[in-house]
Amino acid sequence: MKKGLCSLMSQLLGASRAWVDKRHFRQVRLLRSLLLVVVLCVCFVGWSLPNLSMLSVMTAAGNTTEVKPVRGPRIYNDSANGRKRIYKHDALDGSRRLAEAKARKETRVLKTAESITYTDEQGVIYTLEENAQTYTVTGYTIGYTDELSGITIASVVNGLPVTAIGESAFLYCTTLTSIILPNSIVSISEFAFQNCDGLASVTLSNSLKTIGAYAFSYCNALTSITIPNSVTEIGSYAFWNSRALTSIIIPSSVTSIGYNVFSDCSGLASIVVEEGNTEYDSRNNCNAIISTATNDLIAGCKNTVIPNSVVSIGSYAFEGCYGLSSVSIHRNIKSIGIGVFKGCTGLASIVVESGNTIFDSRDNCNAIINTATNSLVAGCKNTVIPNSVTSIDFDAFAGNTGLTSIVIPSSVTKIDGNAFYGCI
Predict the structure, then answer these.
(1) Residue 131: Cβ-neighbour burial (10 angstroms; 0-12, 13-18, 19+)
(2) Among residues 326, 193, 289, 301, which one has the least CA distance to residue 245?
């Protein structure tokens, strides 16, 4: 473009010498000067436009979204409708007016972002849900972790209710010691408080409906928790490995309990299901959770006494009950899941009552043996495997660190995976 314009100027100026006479030479010189100025301006604009366009693109590309750092698998993004929260690249920093304009723009965008994500003075992050009607607690800022200990969750943010604790919201928040949930909270998502090692006090919402899977797993300072009578669902592994937990009451409102809810709760000594619960019971003060319809014992503790009406014991029902020292399998039990006594390091005696047509503990072996298949279902630290046993089931001795030696008879032709896992 510049080359073409300069050529045009040369032609015009050259032509002027051919048709003007000396009387008009002054005027021609003035005309030539004016033409030179015009052409130079055009050339400058032609050169500037591509670069100006590039500057605009670079500035837009340089805009970056601020990310609030949180502990755990989730990182939450503070942006709305493509508008960014902070700007790390600014090609126009040298201009005070443009810098002030940038600051005003940033303030406006911040107000937009705050309607999506809000962080309170405790460092708790609240995120607006897609319905734009409710907020969920989604995490906490790393900068607050040293101070984050006792917190109270807000019930309202920006005029809208806070209704949920999101997935992994406080995962690995090891400094957290206590938390109070307002009555606006209706759900606690999975992993919400997992590995909160210092969490000793929890006040749940009276409107709470759901406790998600692994929600309070590995909360090793938690000695007790009151589940409100509004809760209908407790997810699998909800309190797994919370070893300081000593007692639990399942309210009458609960209609769904997942797998292994209290597995590895080694300190658990009392389990009570409130009267009036239509799905579960703890009949005969058995210190266990039993499915009323199926008579299946789904969770026990170190003080459980298995009622005669129970016909089956679920997988891992007593997992990690260190204090369980002896167990009696009565004649009515027809089904036993895998790993039923996994990690019961203190278990020294297992007896199957005579008359049971499915299982036996032949030769005082201190084990449960499937009579028809001659497979050893579950053992303990004092088990002596009979010569008639042909196989050892999955997780039969898993986690039994009290087992110091064992003799495998020649009759055994199959040992399933994990049969002796963790026996060290």
Answers:
(1) exposed
(2) 301
Answer whether 270's CB lies under 8 Å from 287's CB: yes
Contact 134/116 with Cβ under 8 angstroms? no
The whole-angstrom distance between residue 271's C-alpha and the CA centroid of its chain comes to 27
Find the helix or strand (DSSP H, E) in which 111 lies: helix 96-114
pTM of the predicted model as reported, rounded to 2 decimal places: 0.72
- Do residues 419 and 398 make contact, with C-beta atoms less than 8 angstroms apart? yes
CB 234 within 8 A of CB 208: no
Q: Rounded CA gap, 142 and 60, in Å? A: 29
What is the arithmetic mean of pLDDT over 94-105? 39
CA distance 181 to 327: 39
> How far apart, in whole angstroms, are the C-alpha atoms of residue 246 and residue 224?
6
pLDDT of residue 351: 98
Tell me the three state secondary structure of residue 259: coil
Q: What percent of the chain has pLDDT over 70?
A: 71
Q: How far apart are CA 255 and CA 234, in angstroms?
A: 9
